[in-house]
Design goal:
15-stranded antiparallel sheet, alpha+beta, about 600 residues, 26 strands, globular
Length: about 600
């Protein structure tokens, strides 16, 4: 039995991140970037695939943990019948790549044990381990090197693991610092644990102090925005969907994807969450990453890119890893990068427009990139695509994709009305014609009068949670009977124990994959947004409380929730879920749904003090 997903904490340095279990084990860490090969891969395998654990030797231990307020510094307390220790874990935000673990005696004395197995290349490469001239432990494999510095004597075990046994008295401390460098470079410079812990804590606290307030759950709002910051690659501004790969959407199933990349799909909602949450600089960096990533031939625009804007993300299966709780295959890379999705064009233009409305300048080059994409979309919108959910069962005319194509032309027209320096009236007239044609086609072919609902694709009977975004985009007003009918139909057809599925995976939807998946948490937040927009505030509050109930005790959440097993599933922590939570919480505090912003030409009203 693997550690439950909700029993992991996240620490990171805005270059990469680690998952640490409640049991004190680092089970996932990719160095030196989010998308690098992992050297601790127990998350998707066993201890032989790499881990680093520090824990009390006693059999009966009471453990509690928390982040420092407004920070990503993790503190874990272990109590035994003889004493108590505090373990502080952090990845410093300064120069170099380090994971610092400080063990401090609080009272009494506690016998502790440290175990470490470094396995580079996703658990497949056992390193050559040696001592440096200073006595530091050095592990090297190919291009990779890590150095362990500690004031505790360590030794090798017969299972190719480094171990240490030590006792911490009240007032004493023991330090462990693991540092990464390329193997051809000198060993990383040492760091002083207390100094970097305090400095990093101050960086996070300073950043989080700017967070919006005035909601019913300000602490969780701040934690979600901190998580988004932790998932941001500081060099480029790209935000990874999650720091993990191949955590299953259904335990034991094949729906296991690599999420350590950046999705265009997430662009508008992420931009809004950052700006409305109080983080204009991060929103600007995210928009700049978007425009750099899609620059080039519009026909070659992808649905996802690497954190630096990389296009080639080949998908491979790692046969040596058994997968999380036997969920195979374990996939690295993502073949969805080669799919055609119409919705990305609307996402991109909506992001540009939302930035403009909120006072965030968009460069002339950025606008020209957008215009080139529109030229391509004038013909491409008529084509079937793989849709927002990246189905692998063939292209169709997905309703959400067509709606987002409409969004692209609608936002271009709004931009023209606000600032016509880069567009002409002739272009605007052509866009208006196309926008109206898309709207008419979707309303005619995408709405089923018998169901009183829009449907997943033209001619289908299946529902799809992406249809909850119709009012969000301004395609139709929130109170349009067709929107109300769709919201109610999804509430009847896709709601499972209070959570919304993306779509029904059995029977009527062919996504090319076997097995089921959990309820999709971002879609449940979209459902709440519609309830807010329809004035059903009590029902919205009920669902918000239910959603908050599946966050772990640190305020982290994954992509999906298994309503049968009552546990989180999917990659973790999931940026898209935290984005949806931020937006929904702010919408609820303002008592208005996302559709309201399309009826005005100014940013959303501030939350009352």
């Amino acid at each position: 039995m693997s550690t439950r997903i909700e029993d992991y904490a996240l620490i990171g340095d805005c270059r990469t991140a680690a998952l640490i279990g409640r049991d004190g084990s680092v089970d996932w860490l990719c160095w030196p970037r989010f998308d690098a090969a992992a050297l601790f891969t127990k998350l998707l395998g066993t201890e032989e695939h790499g881990f680093w654990r520090i824990y009390p030797s006693a059999e009966q231990v009471e453990t509690s943990w928390s982040y420092r307020e407004g920070s990503l510094v993790l503190e874990t307390r272990h109590k035994t019948h003889l004493g108590e220790v505090l373990v502080t874990d952090v990845m410093p935000m300064g120069e170099g790549s380090h994971l610092v673990r400080l063990v401090e005696g609080v009272h009494g004395h506690v016998a502790m044990r440290m175990e470490m197995a470094v396995r580079f290349d996703h658990g497949s490469a056992m390193p050559w381990v040696s001592r440096s001239e200073l006595g530091d432990l050095r592990a090297v494999s190919g291009p990779h090197k890590v150095v362990l510095r500690t004031d505790v004597p360590v030794r090798g075990s017969d299972v190719m693991t480094t171990v240490a046994d030590f006792t911490v008295q009240a007032g004493e401390s023991r330090r462990f610092v693991l540092s990464y460098a390329a193997s051809h470079q000198p060993d990383p410079a040492p760091v002083e644990p207390r100094a970097v812990i305090d400095a990093t804590d101050q960086v996070w606290r300073s950043w989080s102090s700017r967070c919006a307030t005035g909601t019913a759950a300000d602490g969780l709002l701040q934690r979600s925005l901190l998580t988004l910051k932790a998932l941001t690659y500081r060099a480029t501004g790209g935000i990874v969907a999650a720091p993990t790969a191949a955590l299953p959407e259904g335990i034991g199933g094949e729906r296991n994807w690599d999420y350590r990349f950046c999705w265009i799909r997430d662009s508008t909602l992420t931009l809004i969450a950052l700006m409305d949450g109080g983080y204009v600089e991060e929103a600007r960096d995210w928009l700049a990453w978007l425009l750099r990533a899609v620059a080039g031939n519009p026909e070659q625009a992808q649905i996802l890119y690497g954190i630096g804007g990389e296009r080639m993300l080949p998908e491979i299966e790692l046969a040596w890893l058994p997968g999380y709780e036997g969920s195979k295959p374990v996939r690295i890379g993502n073949a969805a990068a080669s799919q055609f999705q119409l919705d990305v064009y609307g996402e991109l233009f909506d992001a540009i427009y939302q930035a403009h409305v909120r006072g965030l300048p968009v460069s002339a080059d950025g606008l020209r990139v957008g215009l080139a994409i529109l030229d391509h979309l004038e013909q491409a919108w008529r084509q079937p695509d793989e849709g927002i959910w990246e189905v692998r069962g063939g292209r169709r005319h997905f309703v959400h994709s067509k709606v987002m194509a409409w969004v692209a032309f609608d936002r271009a027209l709004r931009m023209h009305e606000r600032d016509g320096r880069f567009t002409t009236d002739e272009q605007a007239a052509r866009w208006c014609t196309i926008r109206d044609a898309i709207h008419a086609e979707v309303c005619e072919r995408g709405f089923d009068p018998e169901l009183d609902s829009f449907v997943q694709s033209y001619g289908a009977k299946a529902l799809d949670a992406s249809l909850l975004l119709i009012a969000h985009t301004g395609f139709l007003p929130q109170d349009d009977p067709r929107v109300v009918g769709t919201v109610d139909a999804i509430g009847r057809g896709l709601l499972r124990d209070g959570f919304i599925l993306r779509y029904e995976t059995e029977g009527q939807t062919t996504d090319g994959l076997s097995g089921d998946e959990g309820a999709f948490l971002p879609c449940t937040f979209w459902y709440v947004d519609n309830l807010i927009g329809l004035g059903r505030h009590d029902a919205a509050k009920t669902v918000i409380d239910r959603l908050i109930g599946v966050f772990n005790d640190l305020g982290l959440v994954s992509e999906e929730y298994d309503v049968k097993r009552k546990r989180l599933v999917g990659n973790y922590p999931q940026a898209f879920t935290h984005v949806a939570f931020v937006n929904t919480l702010l919408n609820h505090a303002r008592s208005e749904g996302p559709a309201a912003r399309h009826g005005r030409k100014t940013p959303p009203k501030r939350i009352p003090d």
